[in-house]
Amino acid sequence: MKIFALAKINLGLEVIRRRDDGYHELRTLFQSLSLADELEFFPRNDDLIRLSGNKKSVSWGNDNLIYQAALALKRAKPGTYGVEIKVRKNIPPGYGLGGGSSNAAVTLLFLNQLWNLGLAPGELVEIGRQLGADVPFFFHGGFCLGEGRGDLIQPQPEKWKWAVLVVLPPFSLSTRWVFQQARLSLTSKPKVSKINQFLKSGCLAALENELEEVVFSRFPRLREIKEALKDQKAELSLMSGSGSALYGLFATSQQAEEAGREISRLFPEVEFRVCQTVKRSQYWTTIGVGV
Ligand code: C5P
């Protein structure tokens, strides 16, 4: 049985303060994308979890969040059941596109059914939250506000559909490292939330990703790519999450494709993908597993 794990971008990200648990209090807007990994599940009669995938650069060992998700379920409901999972990875890891977290969420949803565990949706979200701060969003999908560690999710009305040009620099970034750098430059000045302004006014241009500054100061080429996306008339161009992916929103796929070709002419080291934003209802029909 094959299911899909969709990527996300962050339409803005605000770092509010450092918490005592080492995490940061955030305000962010998550948006699902049509870019997706494919996960195929084969039941096993023994109690082994076997994981493999098409990309050599990805770790398919015990540290992979898919493995961790399966293991967390076996710990929550011990029993003799196993699974073999084969993954076709299309969402590059370490780019702020949520691939690992999305993989974990759909694995929890699917194995709860395959193994007949009978865990309630809230219990699955709780297990997911412990695997990563981004995981709870993938139990909603579409367009959502994320607060707390990014794990307190409020679905938002979905008024748009965008073509999205995702630009992939030739390196990934560690989320932990980016937040460590951000911590050093955090100010405690009260700020007006651009995200709250956007939710009231609908004016996209107000949105910012506050992690950009620390990443761009270390990797100035990424700032140049962001500016080039603006020159290509993107309605919004931002870094997603903790990077390193940048994206531009366009009215049509054709505009996004043309902008992508121009960006890769100017920045030959990058790759790009053109995809679409995905609404919540479409998210649930696409992933192929329900709650
Ligand atoms: O939860 P996750 O494992 O995805 O987070 C990776 C790292 O990113 C955390 O260990 C933490 O250093 C940082 N982080 C943070 N504040 C958040 C989310 C992540 O500081 N809200």
Short description:
With 291 residues, the chain is α+β, with helices and mostly antiparallel strands. 34% of the residues lie in helices and 28% in strands. The protein folds into two domains: 2-156, Ribosomal Protein S5, domain 2 (2-Layer Sandwich); 163-276, Alpha-Beta Plaits (2-Layer Sandwich), CATH 3.30.70.890.
Q: Could you characterize the architecture of this molecule?
A:
With 291 residues, the chain is an alpha+beta fold. It is 34% helix and 28% strand. The chain is built from 9 helices and 10 strands. Strands 1, 2, 3, 4, 5 and 6 form a 6-stranded mixed beta sheet that branches. Strands 8-9-7-10 form a 4-stranded antiparallel beta sheet, with helices on one face. The longest helix has 16 residues, at 99-114. The model has no long low-confidence stretch (mean pLDDT 95). The chain binds cytidine-5'-monophosphate. Cytidine-5'-monophosphate is lined by residues 23-24, 26, 132-134, 149-150, 175-176, 179.
Give the secondary structure arrangement, pairings included.
Elements: E1 2-18, E2 24-44, E3 49-53, H1 65-76, E4 82-88, H2 99-114, H3 121-131, E5 143-148, E6 152-155, E7 163-168, H4 175-184, H5 194-201, H6 212-218, H7 220-231, E8 236-239, E9 246-250, H8 253-266, E10 271-276, H9 280-287
Helix pairs in contact: 1-2, 2-3, 6-7
The structure holds cytidine-5'-monophosphate.
CATH architecture of the largest domain: 2-Layer Sandwich
CATH topology of the largest domain: Ribosomal Protein S5, domain 2
Please summarize the sheet with the most strands. Answer: 6 strands, mixed
Tally of helical segments? 9
Report the radius of gyration as a whole number of Å.
Answer: 19 Å
Bound small molecules, by name, code or SMILES, are: cytidine-5'-monophosphate
Structural class: alpha+beta
What share of residues are in beta strands? Answer: 25-35%
Helix/strand order = EEEHEHHEEEHHHHEEHEH
